[in-house]
Amino acid sequence: MDTSVNQGGALKTRSFSANARRQSFVLKSAFASCLLLGAAAIPLLAQRGAISAGGNWVEYDSEDKMTAAHQVRFQLRADGNPRQPEPFQPRVEIFCENGSYKSSNFTPGVKLAPPNRPGFWGQPQMEVLVRVNDSHSSHGWNWTPDSLAMDKGTIRELIGSHIFKIEYLGYEGRSIAEFSPEGLDLARVSKACGLTPKKP
Question: Which of 20, 22, 47, 179 gets the most CB atoms within 10 Å of its CB?
Answer without folding.
Answer: 179
